Structures are given as C-alpha cells and as structure tokens.
Amino acid sequence: MKSIFVTNQGSKCNTMWKRKVVHLMLVVSMSLTPLAHVSAEHGSLNDPSNPQETEAFMDNFMEKPEVQSVLKGAVVTVVHNNQVVLNKGYGYSNVEKNTPVDANSTLFRVASISKTFTATAIMQLVEEGKVDLNRDISEYTDDLNITNNTKTPLTLKHLMTHTSGFDYTDPVTSVSEPNDSYSLEQFVKDNKPAIVRSPGEVFRYDNYAYTLQGYIVQKLSGIPFETYVQQHIFDPIGMSNSSFSLTSEMLAKLATPYDAEGKELPQYPNVPSSSPEGGLITTGRDMAHFMLAQLNQGSYQGSQILKPSSVQAMQSLDVSIHPDIPGTGYGFESSYSQHNHGHQVVSKAGDLTGFHSNMWLLPDQHTGLFIVFNSDGPDLREALFRAFMEHYYPNTKSDYVDYNVPEATLRSYEGLYRDIRLPAWLYEISATENKLQVTDAYGIHILTPVKDMLFRDENGTLAGFKKDISGHIAYFYYNKPDSWSEKLPEAQNYQDVPTDHPYAPYIYRLAQIGLYSQDHALFEPEKPVNRGEFVAQIVGITGITLSTQAPKLQDTATSPYAAYIQTALELGIVQGDPHGLFRPNQPITRQEAALMIWRTASLLLGAPSQQANLMGSHDAWAAEGIQFVVALGLYGPEVKVSSSGAVDYKAKQPMLKQESSVLMYKMLGTLLH
After folding, report:
1. Which residues of the chain have pLDDT under 50?
2. Nearest CA to 468 among 92, 135, 198?
C-alpha cells in the first residue's frame, strides 16, 4: 500500500496508519494487512487426500516465522471426498491462560460466513414452496414497508446476491455488552433503508439484506430465526456446538479476541441478538460437516438439508460484472480468485473485531478448506489459500492472449469512479498506449486488455467494466471486493470559480464526487462555512450511516444538518457547549475545523498525533488538531510558510468555503490515495 504522506515524521508510522485506514474504511472494522507470501513446499499433489501429508503441509505453513509472529489462535479444517482430512487447532484461545485451541470444542465467531447458512435457510423455504426468489419481498414482510424509489420490485434474489439497491447496507448500532439484547424484528424495523437504485443493477455488499432474509425466515416459519437454523440445519448434520445465540454457556467456550497489537479485547454481543448476517458461533468440526454437505449435493451422512438443484444455485457465482470474473451467488462469493488456477472455487469470508474466517469449496474436486483465527493484524487467509492451491491444485489455465482495443474505446473508460459502498474510495482511470492506468488507495496499477471490457493488472488480478442501458461505460470492479464503482460525470462549472482559480481543482473534484451541490450557478468560494455544514461534509465524505436518534443538542433539531451533527456527536467528533448547544449556523473557525478533522482521523481511523512547527496564535484546546492538519499539509495557498519552516495556520479566522474544499480534498487524498 502506497503512502503519500509528506511530513517531517518517519514513514513507518504513517504507512502502518495507511494500512489501518484502508481496511477500516472497507468496513472490516479492524486492522488487517496482507501477510507476505508464504510459499508452499516444493512439488504438488493432485488433492489433499492423505491425512498425514495434509497435516504436515498445514503444520509447515502455520509454523512459518511470519505466521507464528502474528498468530494467536486458529483452526484449520480440510475435507475431501466425503472425509474430514484435517481438523486441527493452532495456538491459543486465550493467551494469558495458555488455553490451547481445540478444533472440536473451541468456539469462534465466523462473522459473514453466517450468510451462507441464512441463504441455506431461504433455499429450504424455496423447496417447500413458501417463497419465490423472484417475487416482491413485500409479500413476505407484512407491514415492514421499505421505501422503494425505483420502479423495480425488490426480490429475495436481489437480497441474496447483494444487489438490493439500498442506500445504506451497514446499520450502525451502539450496544456493546455480551448480555445486551436487540431482537431481530426490532433491528429490522429500526434500521430500514430505502431502495435508491434499481434492484439487480449494481453489486454492493449488503449486511442488512441478509438480516432481512433472517427476518423473513422467522416470519414464514413461525419460530425464531436461531431456532429454525438449529432445527433445520445444525441438528440434521450434527453441528452440535453451533449457534446464532450468544448464551452464557457459549461465551465461556468462545475464543478470546485480540487486536492488531496483541491486546486482549472484550467480548461483545451479536447485533441483533441472532444476527443472520454475521452472528454464527461454531467450531472447526461443525464447519467440516457443513462443507461436506455442500460438497455432497446437500447431504451429510444420510441427512439431506438441501436438494442438489438448490446447492447448484447457491454455488453459481453468476452475478458478476464480467463472465470471466467470479461474482456472487446465494450466500457465496469468490475470495482471492486470482489464485483459483482455473478451477471453480466458491467461498465466503467473514470479519468481525478480533475474528476473521474464510471457507473455500472446490465442488469439482470435492474439496473444502476452512480457517478461522482470533486476532486482528496481518491477514493469514490469502497466504493460506495461495499456498494450498499451489501445493494441491497448481495452475491449469493458459494465460490470456494479447487483445487490442481501439484508442477511442480505450478512452471511453477514462474518468473518475466512486465506490458504491464507500464514497470516499475513488479510482482515477486514464488511457495510455493500449493500456489503462488506475490510481487508487493501493497506488498506481497498469491494466492490460485481455477481452472486451476485461483487463488484467501486473499481478494477474482481473478488472471488469459494465455498460448502462444506453451503452455507456457505467461501472468498474477491480481490487475492492465488496462493491462495484460507478463512473462519475464531470462537474459543472460554477460561474464564480473559473478553471484557473487557485482552488478550482479541489472544488470541482469534491463537486464531482457529490460533496457540493451542483444545483446553483454560484459556489461563493469566499463565503464562511457554518458549523453544521462543515460537520455534514466530514460525515458525508466518510460514508458512515447517519444516526436515527433524536438530536441531543438543543439547537440542532431544526437544522438541515441535524442527522449529521447527531452522528458526529455519537462518534465523538463534536461536542456541545456547557449549555447543550452546538450553534450550527455560526461560522466555523479554522481551529475548530482542524480539531474536528483530527478527531475524525483519531477516533475512527486510529491516526497517530503529529507535530508541526507553528507560529501565530491559537487556543490550547485546538493545538492537537492544528498540529495534525499542518503536519499533513491539509491546507491551501491561504497558508504561508516562513523561511524557517514555521506555519501560521490563521487558526482563529473563519474557514472559507474554498479553504474547506482544500482541507476536505487533501484529507480524502491523504487517507485513501
């Protein structure tokens, strides 16, 4: 990951923060960085059929110094040809107590792998004729009344393939104690999104969609979701240590989570309490049973939980931006597909604070691989899958041949693309010598055309484009796996911001990504920004779901920015004064703006404090914010630097709109470019 910090501080700290920022902004909610390549042993086998050899291979991988240095505890499970070849624990479920991981009994949160079980429950209802994947879900949700701003009905198929068109897909909640309770029904009603894109049009990873599916299972079965899964999935295939409910008994067996620095983290509840999108708690043994059922046409030891046709439907990753790029199925996706080596692989990954998991199935080889570990930090999953595939299923697919694209066609891909799920994530694409240059959070990449609307980068990762109904390039999918990106139209010119205006590049780029309204002919660049408007810009640029709580600060209730201010208050970005007021219409000073930027970077992204050479006056309460903004160069030509390198930030002056545009644009660039 590339760092472009230009400061007087050491680059190591900044690079570590950049990695943390990128993955946090990907809504993983913890620090995960790719583990350096961990190679397989020399030679390869046809399959992992020998238990002794498979265990030796896995032990060798897990004992690598680069793995041991980051591992707290883990379970690795391999199944092949209806047999459990390996189910083994590594490390500790609790480091302080020296409690080893037991693959049969130690419980782990597997996070979004839960979605595969929820999809299984839906497919069971399909088989019983209780639901139709292609019918409007309003037939199954009674009085839920989700607002649909399109003319396309929302179906279960859309929910299952992350193409719902919802405006928000990641509800934010505040419960934090393991015994806190939040019912599924109440959660679904409290966090209703609106449908703003035609369902089926765009892929955007959708947690709420899977929570809603669990609610539908509960409504149609007449029993709680967690009870349904227990009776119809867990019990039939012998998953005796699995549950969607975090009981006191299960909490006692649950592995302790650790952060990226190795610090023990507190346990936390499922939200909602059954959490169909991410609440499954299970063991390696139980996951082996589920993988075997999926690889054996829905059957495990004589118990049939799905028909073969349902299994095939779930594992068909046909919702994709391009046929050559594995897409999304019902509860399945494709993790690290660049290592598939020409084989069909379906998978599901899961991420929660302190817990990370992945399940891969190779249906044609009747092989399954599962890993879960209880710590943040460097990510073991890609390294494991890459080594596994290199060892057992080496490359069998020939490379793509050269493919020439007319220059005019190549230039039609050029532009700025904004991620559908995370608006702050941008791709800048330009054409160069029958290739495309892409700039994103990870750096600069060169994409070579290999087919119509299909490209490949220098590492073999595929990138695809999709046209809209008018035949224009509209969407892009590359190295951010949880959503497509949309091509943005160029910003319209403001009459008072000519192209040679010193702040024009910042103003027009932010207008292009939607931070500034294009409904007015004038921008008024020298007009002061009020406090409410500035907070709305900060919250808007992060893509955080807005709070639905009533405004706590007395004078914000009637403000057009009330929801933004309340969200920022809950996150700790802003505070009220001693009288419980915020004064949203008052112009914000430059030092107030700097403090809010610092709080955003520190509280949400774990940014370290910075030091800068300052001159001029400022209030003591704003010092840390000003140091941060100045050290990272988040200012425009209004700030002058003395010959000695000292900076007068003009801290007590009002922040003008043109100055705010530089602050916001450079903050965005620093965090994600």
Report:
1. 1-31, 42, 673
2. 198
Please say whether the beta carbons of 597 and 633 come within 8 A. no
CATH code of the domain covering residue 383: 3.40.710.10
CB 564 within 8 A of CB 539: yes
Domain hosting residue 451, numbered range: 407-487
Q: How far is CA 102 from the centre of its chain?
A: 30
**pLDDT recorded at residue 338:** 87
- Give the residue among 308, 317, 270 at the shortest CA–CA distance from 114: 270
Bridge partners of residue 444, in order along the sequence = 439
Q: Read off the pLDDT of residues 277-299 as tens digits, 9 standing for 90 and up.
A: 999 999 999 999 999 999 999 99
d(CA 168, CA 544): 9
Residues near 550 by Cβ (< 8 Å), separated by ≥ 6? 557, 566
Segment holding 538, helix H or strand E: helix 531-542
Within 8 A by CB and 6+ apart from 671, the residues are: 18, 21, 25, 424, 601, 605
Q: Structure tokens of 424?
A: 């702050």
Give 532-566 pLDDT, tens digit per residue: 999 999 998 877 778 888 999 999 999 999 999 99
Residue 621 is predicted with a pLDDT of 96
Closest residue by Cα to residue 66 from 378, 388, 387: 378
Instruction: Write down the pTM of the prediction.
Output: 0.87
The conformation of residue 40, written as its DSSP 8-state character, comes to P
436: part of which helix (H) or strand (E)?
strand 435-440
Q: What is the CATH number of the domain that holds 448?
A: 2.40.128
| Together in a domain, 473 and 533 | no
Q: 37 lies in a domain?
A: no
Specify the pLDDT at position 35.
64
DSSP designation for 600: I
Q: How many structural domains compose the chain?
A: 3
The 3-state secondary structure of 110-150, one letter per residue: CHHHHHHHHHHHHHHHHHCCCCCCCCEHHHCCCCCCCCECC
CA 70 to chain centre: 22
Torsion over CA: 575, 579, 583, 586 (sign): negative
CA atoms within 13 A on the CB side of 671: 31
Strand ordering across the sheet containing 614-615: 614-615, 647-648, 640-641
Ramachandran region of residue 434, left (φ > 0), alpha (ψ -120 to 50) or beta? Answer: left
Task: Identify whether the C-beta of residue 630 lies closer than 8 Å to the C-beta of residue 609.
Answer: no
Nearest to 506 by CA among 641, 660, 638: 660
